């Protein structure tokens, strides 16, 4: 708090002083002390008058208007009156004989009440000068009193009584109290029911201990409130608010109580404001503040929140304590007296005066001091002392003006500091003033004076003209209600709605606008190109002087006190409107898709008693009553510094704020944190709305909306604003706005193109009539197609007819229209016209469409004809069938492919009894069951029916054939077809009834179920047919039963088949018990009849016991050899060899050797047959060397060996074997045909013989005889060639494609020239399939299998 002035104790003399502020205005302060002088000061501390008193003052007070000061003293009964207007003193004789002890002016009237030390009362009416003495009002000294707002007077006296009197002094109420009363006040107690009585309660401090509440409406029930002893005595109390009482106690306590009957006695607030003592309390309702003083400080509280300490004023030099505390009525000044007789005056509330220019602010910081600051640009503040207490302040770029009434002082704000330029008087009281760099615009009494701030006159007349000008030019014009001054313009508004722009540079009016009602206020931005005005209806508008566009401000509060434009250059379109409670943020967008707009961005609560003066970047600088400035951030601009820390909901609201304020860069950052497509789309739509095409492209590219990016890039370079806005409105799906903008642009055809693209044909036709009449036919055709689609055939026909151009180059278009006319004519009932048009046109599809329409209309003959003409024979035939025109159907049948139509035709022919034609039609319709039915039931042609059943595998057909054969008692055929029709149960019963089970069993084949096989098996079991019973038990996997029946089969020719089946059963069952059972049977354990070893071999093979099978195979082969069945023995060994090889089991040497010898024997016949006797002889020599393995044919083999060797020139070998034949045991067995020849060979021996040719060993390349199979060098058994019996060569290697046995490639190929089969496996082999094997390692080193 700033101290305004200080009065020392020398002014009043030592001791306590009395003082009181002038009522209402507060311009004067009256003080008096022990020096018997009453001093009257102005509010700045200047002494205005002195009044000498005969003695000490006993009372001092101002009347209700502050015009008259009354003073009484203890030396005489004269009342001194001082007039504030004339500064003259007058004396009033009270007429009382005793000393005057108390005086008090009425709150509402002109009465002055004066009490005496003996309890008498004088009521003096200052207006009428009438004095009314009332003697004996009290019996002792009157010490206190109060006037009510109803002009009742309450008085308290040392006689402990309280009287309530009217304005004439008549006593209305009287009551007694226990102790001496003081501090009487009138107020209104809080009650549940409000009464219209006004101040109905008198409060009295009784004995400085209790508070006595006396209700005038309920005098019999007064309330007395006592307080805690620790508080001390009651020093003072004040009523405020809705029945609240603030009380100060001597021990420094400061409490608030409520007088509401429910809360009475409760302390709402309590604080010990002062440590030692409290001397006074004061309340200022205009400030909404309360103050208490004590010790050496004053503490000020806010009445709305008592717990908050508003200010503390400490007076270090006041050691003796403080005295009384009093505020002026307006709350601007607070005076406090001290115990030693001094007085301090503090400024608690300033007139809120200020002005801003750009970011600079000038505001009142004391009653005679203005401070200029620029917080935005961090300029040093400048303080300027003012001559008088100003009523207005104006700030320009280089000047400051302040003044009051009709006078203004101008100050230059230079680099050297502020200096006074001049003071100037005007023709009337100044309402407001505005400054720019050169001129001042002064508004007074509905006129404006525009004049230069500096410089008087000039050299020429032009300069004199430009020096000053008064607006309006004549009194006849309307009255000016408001004005504003910018760098270039003087702008003012009048009471008839006129808004004028005066261009200072040209010294003439450049713009005039007429509003419907009078203007109250104008608020231009710093350039004057944007302006807000408020009219007499309290409506706000944004005005653009460039094009006279006026936009009403939405949600504009009628209580708005002022408007501030944003000073931050990037937010030029933002302004705020403010009233007492709120700040409304608006955004003015000069360019949007929908044209200029004003939007309410949001509201911000305005703190109490703060007045906005400047706006910069969303921060409002406000003035307070204490002569300071505060900053208030608008809720719309309250952006968080770290958006990453915000929750999603706050991020979304922050994004919406950015979008409203057009802060798209900040919105981009927020969208990154939100990371939702919805947010990005909101940003994109906002940028399009504000026609920020480049930014919109950036957003859409970021979210991958390629279509929008491409569309926006196409229009990026459009310079016509309406055309660009039209495209953007179209992209935002506001098509009506888009059309309006297109029509207002340089390319109105864009509106037509848009409507066509949107299929808005009505609008497109309307536009085409005005813009492009040549496009009407094409739009009509497209519109007709849409109308046809939605079923509006009448209008479609009209538009199709309008669409016909008859232009040579539009043949296709006209055809489409003609087709539409044909269709619509049929739809509208003009069938003849439609059909004729369809027939004339070559379009097949049109014929089909018209035919379909006619078919739906049940016009079958015309429909079928069109189908037929269009080549849609299936549809034509179907429609002819519906019209029962079988003749036409028959004609079309060869060209019909639809089975359904053939079937319908067949049914018709069947009904007519023409069965052959029906059968043929059914066959064409692929309904073979019906063909079978006709063949059996009507044509009696079972052969054809059976043939069809076999071809089609028809189940129903098979059933019909089965029933046919059943009627003929051909049960075998009937069973066959029942099985084919999946009627196995019926087939089984028929087979059972008619003894055809074997037929059934044969027919059922492998497709039957286990249950079917079981049924057959049980049937044969009952018939004692063990073989068939076993066979079918095997098929249904009942192996024990199957084996049992196979072993029961009698030993006949079928025996071998039964044993084979038994082996198969055991092989599938893989059951040891069944295996042993069969082995016992084969070994003869059951019937003492051992079975052939081949069955044992097959059993082992079936059980996959290959080693046992191999051993058995060798035994079987030996028996076959002994019996002379060499081919059988060879086949047994070969099959076993391949089986072991396939299972990668090592081949026994004995088996391999026996197979080689047997194969060599078989090769002899092949070579001899081919005439290659040398190869045959070599093989016979190998066989003869193992002659013991051929006991049945020793002599024939040796004989053949002798003859073949002799024939081949192997004379020595021939002699050797001939000598062997001459042994006694063989000699008599020689065939007589060869006996003499052999004997001759022996008698005349010829031992000449060429050595056998050598060839390389495939393992070690050692040269050894061709037929030698064991290499003497590396001791390896060499594989032999299956074609020659020789050992194999590495570079002439192949194998049989069937059995994979190796052979010499060249020799095998020669052999296949004459032979067809492989000598080893006897399978057919082609020489083409032989392939040379370059790496025979797999054959030379076969993988050794399991032992």
Q: Looking across the biggest beta sheet, what order are the strands in?
A: 1-32-31-30
Please give the share of residues in helix. 25-40%
Number of helical runs?
43
**Which value, in Å, is the CA radius of gyration?**
67 Å
The description of the largest β-sheet is: 4 strands, antiparallel
| Number of distinct beta strands | 63
Spans of at least 5 consecutive residues with low confidence: 457-462
Terminal CA distance reads 119 Å
Beta-strand content estimate? 25-35%
Q: What overall form do the CA principal axes indicate?
A: elongated
Structural class: alpha+beta
Whole-number average pLDDT?
83
Pfam family, one: Zf_IFT144_1st
Subcellular location: Cytoplasm, Cytoskeleton, Cilium basal body
Main location: cytoplasm
Organism: Saccoglossus kowalevskii
How would you explain this protein's 3D organization?
The chain is of the alpha+beta class and 1347 residues long. It is built from 43 helices and 63 strands. The strands form 17 sheets. The protein has a four-stranded antiparallel sheet. A four-stranded antiparallel sheet has the order 2-3-4-5, with no helix packed on it. Strands 6-7-8-9 form a four-stranded antiparallel sheet, with no helix packed on it. Strand 23 (244-249) and strand 24 (253-258) form a beta hairpin. Helix 4 (664-674) runs antiparallel to helix 5 (677-689). The longest helix is centred in the last third of the chain and has 22 residues, at 1149-1170. Residues 457-462 have low confidence and may be disordered.
